[in-house]
Amino acid sequence: MSVLVNKNSNIIVQGFTGGEGTFHATQMIDYGTNVVGGVTPGKGGQTHLGKPVFNTVQDAVDKVAADTSIIFVPPAFAGDAIMEAAAAGIKVIICITEGIPIADMVKVKAYIDNKECRLVGPNCPGVITPEEAKVGIMPGFIFKKGNVGIVSKSGTLTYEAADQVVKNGYGISTAIGIGGDPIIGTTTKDAIELFMNDDETEAIVMIGEIGGQLEAEAARWIKETGNKKPVIGFIAGQTAPKGRTMGHAGAIVGGKDDTAQAKMAILKENGIHVVESPAKIGEKVAEILG
Q1: Lower CB density within 10 Å: C or N end of the chain?
Q2: Where does this protein hold substrate (predicted)?
Q3: What is the location of CATH 3.40.50.720 in the chain?
């Protein structure tokens, strides 16, 4: 089992013929991902990377039964691209674009709340189910199939965690990079819940960072629902000065509960196995799964 994407997902790329879309779609196809086409308005009817190009997402849904989309569209147009995918009935929408205005994301969030779809991102590395589907920008060779789920606000730490897990003799069921913007589609808790309900995920690695309350909400939910599976937690930004944005737009310490130390304390209180360094993630997984 996996969550969100697998070998049967019919994936399209919005912004298919642009530089980013072309580069990453090539990598996805080379990985073996089932890319069934792409969308670039005005270029419908053409072929790109051996796949059909459509003018609209609706065309792609109608003609190639697309059910998953990855978005490489410039920030000014990315909000509309997400809503177009949702309107066309795409079930899993993964938005890589960084720098979408918050005002646009407020509208997007309100719009997709009434649709039967799941948004991952924006400003995220995507989702990978190893050896089945890579729908994102992560280096696929690091990931090996297994039973550890990863949810992370940080792209690079997603790869680091996967590398640590694999080097310790385990593998990944699915890795979800949720993104670090203030408004995102899938929260830490949402992703944890998917893994808790996945039969083949036996342990979960949860990587957070300073700013916001997503990790605290997830930790409390895990405890309330009975700590069904072991969760290994790491919070980035332990040396971040208060009031300064660190890397991600949402990674800013607003109050005392937003610091890495405060979040780590909350995680520990709720039964999560907290590690002080990302270098210890794989060791902790091995210790717990033994």
Answers
A1: C
A2: 159
A3: 11-120
Identify the active-site residue in 24, 48, 248, 273.
Answer: 248
248 is catalytic: yes
Class of domain 11-120: alpha beta
- Enumerate the known binding-site residues for CoA: 17-20, 43, 96-98
pTM score, whole prediction: 0.95
Which residues of the chain form CATH 3.40.50.261?
138-289
Whether residue 146 contacts residue 200, with contact meaning beta carbons closer than 8 Å, is answered with no
String of DSSP letters for 150-193:
EEES-HHHHHHHHHHHHHTT--EEEEEE---SSS-SS-HHHHHH
